[in-house]
Amino acid sequence: MEIGKFNRLEVVKNVDFGVYLDGGKYGEILLPSRYVPSGCQIGDVLDVFIYLDNEERLVATTLTPFAQVGQFACLKVAWVNRFGAFLDWGLMKDLFVSFREQKVRMNVGEWHVVYVYLDKDSYRIAASSRIEHFLSKDMPSYLPGDPVDVMVWGKTDLGYKAIVDNCYGGLLYRNEVFAPLGIGQRMKAYVKLVRPDGKIDLELQRPGAGKVEDFSSALLQYIKAQGGSVALGDKTPADVVYDIFGVSKKTFKKAIGDLYKKRLILLDDEGIVLAEQGD
Questions:
Q1: Structure confidence by residue, pLDDT tens digits, 165-203
Q2: Are the CB atoms for 144 and 150 separated by under 8 Å?
Q3: Which residue from 114, 145, 167, 263 has the least number of CB within 10 angstroms?
């Protein structure tokens, strides 16, 4: 059984306030009545999340937290006291972040990307916003073009720092992102290059045949972000296109054609406008 994760545990005892589950070396663990499935009997095996309650006792729940131990998540600060901050992670007991594990001081109502970990001495589940400390130091085995899941966790002058597949560090370059990205935003990306230091350069457009389709979507979002119209078109110089979007003039023109055929945009002498604003 693992604390801070979902486990399949057997029901071994019924009591007035719930059922007890076989926690192996941790003994019997209570699943309170509010979480006991209807018709539950001794011998049934349940999927439950295990954590410590407000009295530091192991307890089970069928609720799903926003993150388990070993995962990164963007969570909201629920309250703060003299020991640290407490994050809402979907359970009755909030998730603690000590001041020393806060990269920047956390305030109520803010959202922060954190890593959820288990304190091996106290068995308490806690979180840290010092993301770099928890990214893998191993060399990734990705190849250029491999699809990955990423979450944005920070910004630099170069672009957006991202967590790749809940494991590695990566970067989306600012001049290759055509609409603002938010901290905690999750999306699909593609490996552009694995650098010698193990960091991963990422891109949002799929390489090869799928690039036009992906860029069409990115171009549409860019137009929306600019208020529904842009002074760009077929006659825009290739170097201007590349400076703005990081793609070739050929890819840019194909994307315009794709959006036009789908009746999502209109073209005029001033550039491109969204179809719904051009009627």
A1: 999 999 999 888 877 889 999 999 999 999 999 999 999
A2: no
A3: 263
